[in-house]
Amino acid sequence: MKTNTANRLLLLLTIFAAISFQSCIKDKCNGAYTYFRYEPVYITYEELRASVASEGPYALKNPGKIWFSNNYIFINERNEGIHVINNANPSNPINEAFIKIPGNLDLAVRGNTLYADSYIDLLAIDISNPSAVSVAKRVENALPQRRTAGFSSSWDFAATDPNGVITHYNKVAVTEEYEMDCSGGMQDDGNVMFDDSGFSPQFGDAGGVLNSSESGGGGDVGSKGGSMARFAMSQNYLYIVDNSTMHLYDIANVTNPTFSTQVRLGWEIETIFIRGSFIYIGSTTGMHIYDNSSPANPTWLSTYSHVNSCDPVVVEGNYAYVTLRSGTECDGFTNQLDVINISNKANPTLVATYPMTNPHGLGIENGTLFLCDGADGLKVFDANNPLTIGENLLQHFPGIDAYDVIPFQKRLFMIGANGFYQYDYTDPSNLILMSTLSVQ
What we know:
Layout: H1 2-26, E1 28-43, H2 45-48, E2 53-55, E3 63-69, E4 72-77, E5 81-86, E6 94-100, E7 107-110, E8 113-118, E9 121-126, E10 134-139, E11 165-181, E12 223-225, E13 231-234, E14 237-241, E15 245-250, E16 258-264, E17 269-275, E18 278-283, E19 286-291, E20 299-305, E21 313-316, E22 319-324, E23 336-341, E24 349-355, E25 362-365, E26 368-372, E27 378-382, E28 393-397, E29 402-408, E30 411-416, E31 419-424, E32 432-438
Antiparallel strand pairs: 1-11, 2-6, 3-4, 3-12, 4-5, 5-6, 7-8, 8-9, 9-10, 13-14, 14-15, 15-16, 17-18, 18-19, 19-20, 21-22, 22-23, 23-24, 25-26, 26-27, 27-28, 29-30, 30-31, 31-32
């Protein structure tokens, strides 16, 4: 009797244990989740350094930088190369050739030499025959920290990457399985999921269009660039700014740029503009002024700080004009024009602020201020009195997504998302459109 009872008890315990074990099994379920990651795409160093070539003319598709020199307009096609436009007849510019330069964003021209970036390299290109250019010199790894716009600094190009240079990132969906309890609780397996909402990689607005010096940009009469510069020239030096540093190259021998020195600038550097013996550096947090009376050795003078925004700058007389805009790469929310008194370069002071829509590049000549207000178009102001600019809008050209301008001897060259525009501003209150080259 005791034996039967013990057996029954053992059987009941066994059944209970089995039921409990099955219950535990049923409490665990398999699941899967999908996330997105961005995988780098590379060009090898060998491919990069064998890719510069003259090609037939292409239509503009994604224009960025712009430079005017000796009746030619040079227009950057972002990350692809440079369009060569014969502008001998401003009413009928001719798209003459295309220079293929992988990873190109910035440029400057002196005589028959074109300086251009190619991802991490600096090129000096002989353009005496735009249809058959040749690389006079390549400075390898000259720009190892060039920024990929739209990404944090951790996505910068690296000259030491054994795989080559990152050209872009592919968005890839990844599905992974995991174990969870049946009530829906996911077991942490250490994987990181990336939220794809609101992340939009952009290439192109990290660099910017080029700048001018007092003699017309780059130190050559008849050669000039725009305000969103990372390249500039003064006397026998080429200046290049990256995210934190100004690199100086001796170009006394125009076709043979030779590294001279570098100057630490701080962080989030965006643009460079040279006027006379001073350098004006635009960053997302302020404008830095450097004394350039010794072009081989720029020295810091002062910093004007502002809220976190994108920041190109131009100068005329005792005033600097700075546009602040919101944007993905700047994380700011301010859209305005600041006017800064720089009569005392060691102590710049804000004297006026004017609201704008989304201002980008700007230019000033003889008291006329040209401002590219993004999707709100081109705006022309009388700036003879910097304290009343907001009351003196001379003209507004809406319907043009304006990026940057070059004013030069009563002609205005403007580049934007829609293409290249050329105006006669003999009368600043009545700009006359001379010609266009449209994006196709």
